[in-house]
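chain below, 393 aa
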Amino acid sequence: MELFVSPECRGLWDDVSCWPHAVEGEVVSVPCPTFLQTTGRVYKNCTESGWSESYPPHEIACDYGFNGSFSIETAVSPRYFLYVRIMYSVGYAASLVSLVVAVTILCLFRRLHCTRNLVHIQLFLSFILRSTLIFVRDLLLFTSQDHFHCGVYPMSCKIATALSNYSIMANYSWLLAEGHYLYSLVSVSLFSRRRHLGWYIALGWGAPAVVLVAWCGSRCYFEDEGCWETRRVEWIWWILRAPVLLFIIVNLSFFLCIMRILVAKLRTQDMPGNEFNHYRKLAKSSFLLVSLFGLHYILFAFVPDKVNNTSVEIWNFIELAFASTQGFVVAILYCFLNGEVKSEMRRRWGRWRLMQGLQGQRQRGSMSQSGGATTNVSLLQRGPTTPPPSLEK
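prediction:
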């Protein structure tokens, strides 16, 4: 027994209005877009071959062709979002490439395998996760935005938002691990530095996971709207804000204590000059990162909701430009400008050149030896053809 299913027209977004599902022969009408501030309606027929053309046309039904209801902002917005997307895509691509290179360098060279560099690698991985999620989101979720315009938000976009928030919290938690490890280097620590690594992993990856679970549960029960990017219920966003602010404050206190200890040890001459300079450079780079990231988070996490469109566009452009290049800055400060990494690279480069030189000398030596053997053989072969002078007399 066959079930008869009447043909239907699937929901459609025509770049102006959202059309719901309809069956063949049904006439559907939708109001004009709200931003046009008109009371007209547009109609479509669901036919055997699909949706018909809209009638009357939008410019007539909604009266925007005569009174200029379409503002310049509507035509400029797509170009603005295109430029913004190109800008942050370039920034995240530069961060991703530099971070992958940095992780590869720290993993390949065994002389660089220490707890400090292992903590650096975890920080790099958190930024790699963040950059990767941006490209996955753009590739899978935003290639077609029809469902977003029609008020349908799939679970995949909510998961992408949640993972992006997780990666941001992981950035700050691993910066906190960096600060604590540097503090343990310059202060008297009762614990093994190797033993600290397990606690750092629990802090860097585990603490953000706990916070994220609490945030997702709150979103599901109290503000399950859109792709979870709205901020209607303010206290839900504080579930994410509070831990990050706590990480920033604790880290700043760590670095202030580090500088105080370094200055005290230098005055008492308990620390050699080279060792002091080494710790001072580490503290300077770490303090710079935390200051920049903390300032960035505090500025952009508390953006007022009620501002004009131009301010929002400028604010978003600056925020995305800063956020997309953070991974690149981290890779520069913690790897490419790292004295140990540079000395190891120079050592490997000098060793490679030495090996190339020795290999070239061996090749030239073997060629000269083979050439000498050939000359001797030829001389031996030509020798008997000419009798010695004493025998001719």
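Strands lie at 8-9, 12-13, 18-19, 22-23, 27-31, 41-47, 50-51. The chain has 13 helices and seven strands.
thats it, cya
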